[in-house]
Specification:
Largest sheet: 7 strands, mixed
Number of domains: 2
Distance between the termini: 61 Å
Bound molecules: nicotinamide-adenine-dinucleotide
Strand order of the largest sheet: 13-14-15-12-11-16-17
Shape: globular
Strand content: 15-25%
Radius of gyration: 23 Å
Length: 489
């Protein structure tokens, strides 16, 4: 189905075709792709060259695949918990054996650094392994009631539709399908149109591991066709969506008609709060990673740095060499810390935030070909500036001073988003107070880490609804059924 063209073959330059692509958070990312109707030509963002051609699933094909997934659900939910666990462990083992292959594929498809891509493939393995422990432990409760026995069951939902963005194609797919399958659901999965290759490969590996056909089906194609088919089809009982707030709210409205279950992981504009008593050297040395990792195409990017006024100048002095040392180069190189942006259109969108902004300093990046953007630090003259308020989703960070703790929390919360954030201070009491005060689903103190597969992940406010990962996510793929059995008859 997928033909892999080498970088130097067909080689059409995608830069013109992708000018109006996903970067603008176009509700339908298809605009970023080139090629004949019904076909996506997948482009390597580091070279601008076509690496593969992928047929797009039609609406009729999506509906037929959902019908097959609904039939497969009838038997998958009856698979004994121990057998379902063994199949998921085997799937994890097969992914483990293909980590290098998946990572190299992701480098070509998404421009991720090879180091990050290895972590991402390994994360799918780990998430599968983690949820393989779930089927035998998915127990209900016995609740004392007079006159009988009252028990609860965690019932699977049916078919789950997982819709994935282009920025982390592998982990976000795994965060959806692993708990959904463990809980006894079948899954239809739509990768982003720009980045379908690793998801397609994961679907093949699932079959290789012995998962029955139609238990996990990968359907590449357009959001407005395949994604909307998931929302419209009554057999799809839950949508697990990660992407922009704009598309997420539209999907939420679509799900309302059928009271369809929904998890939303949406945009972010997270704060990195640096107090005067912080380990300033460490805060400055790690700040570039917190926003430039994955070229800033990270919903958790700490793209607003708030620095307490007495250390503001010193922090910028320390930040500048750290930004300039950040290695932006061919993502296939082991030394690369940052690769290109996903498309020419996205680069144009990111650059637009520099118009009229005060640039403090920049790092460097290759000239091209490919969709490169240098790491850039902007000084916010006021919190009203566009680059301070909007999710840029690129290697651009804004810095603003603050005076006291109350102002820091107020500025951190002055956004429609609430996904993650960091707090740098040596004062434990302040760390707790600020962590309780900031409206975000995930916060780290003296660290930038956001994601561990065994802890919950998700957003507050317009960053999302529900939680992924950890034990909470498993229950979100079930409905609780209460059964009362009379004993006094
Ligand atoms: P997007 O919303 O444009 O697309 C996401 C997915 O939705 C794609 O597969 C797309 O094809 C599909 N889609 C588009 N229109 C649709 C429709 N009408 N119906 C159903 N599906 C449709 O997002 P993107 O540009 O791919 O990804 C970037 C966004 O994702 C950023 O806002 C980022 O913050 C967010 N994100 C959030 C998280 C999180 O966990 N909170 C993680 C990663 C990315």
């Amino acid at each position: 189905m997928v033909s892999n063209d080498s970088d130097d073959s067909a080689g059409s330059d995608n830069s013109a075709g992708s000018d109006d692509s996903a970067g603008s958070h176009d509700p339908d990312d298809s605009a970023g792709a080139v090629g004949a109707v019904g076909v996506t030509q997948v482009v390597n963002p580091a070279t601008g060259l076509v690496v593969a051609t992928v047929p797009q699933t039609t609406a009729a094909e999506a509906e037929a695949a959902i019908d097959r997934a609904a039939r497969a659900y009838g038997s998958w939910r009856e698979v004994a918990p121990g057998d379902r666990a063994r199949l998921l462990r085997r799937f994890a083992a097969v992914v483990d054996a293909h980590v290098e292959e998946l990572a190299e594929l992701e480098v070509r498809n998404s421009g991720h650094t090879i180091g990050n891509a290895r972590w991402e493939a390994g994360n799918v393995r780990d998430v599968l392994d983690y949820y393989a422990g779930a089927p035998e432990r998915l127990t209900g409760r016995q609740i004392p009631v007079p006159g009988g026995l009252n028990v609860t069951f965690h019932e699977p939902l049916g078919v789950v539709g997982v819709i994935v963005p282009w920025n982390f194609p592998m982990p976000i797919a795994g965060w959806g399908f692993a708990p959904a399958l463990a809980a006894g659901n079948t899954v239809v999965l739509k990768p982003a149109e720009l980045t379908p290759l690793t998801a397609i490969r994961l679907g093949e590996l699932a079959l290789e591991a012995g998962l029955p056909p139609d238990v996990l089906t990968v359907l590449p194609g357009r959001g407005s066709v395949v994604g909307e088919a998931f929302v419209a089809h009554p057999a799809v009982r839950k949508i697990c969506f990660t992407g922009s707030t704009e598309v997420g709210t539209r999907i939420m409205a679509g799900c309302a008609a059928q009271v369809k279950r929904l998890t939303l992981e949406l945009g972010g504009k997270s704060a990195n709060l640096v107090f005067a008593d912080a380990d300033l050297a460490r805060a400055a040395a790690t700040a570039p990673y917190a926003v430039f990792d994955n070229a800033g195409q990270d919903c958790c990017a700490r793209s607003r740095i708030l620095v307490q006024r007495p250390v503001y100048d010193r922090f910028l002095e320390l930040l500048e060499p750290a930004v300039q040392a950040f290695r932006v180069e061919d993502p296939a190189l082991e030394t690369a810390e940052m690769g290109p942006l996903i498309s020419a259109g996205h680069r144009k969108s990111v650059s637009s935030y520099l118009d009229g902004a005060e640039v403090a300093f920049t790092g460097s990046c290759p000239e091209g070909p490919g969709f490169w953007h240098a790491p850039t630090v902007l000084l916010a003259r006021s919190p009203a500036e566009r680059h301070w308020r909007e999710e840029i989703f690129g290697p651009v960070v804004s810095v603003l001073p603050f005076d006291d703790e109350a102002e820091a929390v107020a500025l951190a919360n002055d956004t429609e988003y609430g996904l993650s954030g960091s707090i740098w201070t040596q004062d434990v009491g302040r760390a707790i107070r600020v962590a309780r005060g900031v409206e975000s689903g995930n916060l780290s103190v003296n660290s930038h880490s956001s994601v561990r597969y065994w802890t919950p992940f998700g957003g507050m406010k317009r960053s999302g609804l529900g939680r992924e990962l950890g034990p909470d996510a498993l229950h979100a793929f079930t409905d609780v059924k209460n059964v009362f059995l009379a004993t006094d008859a």
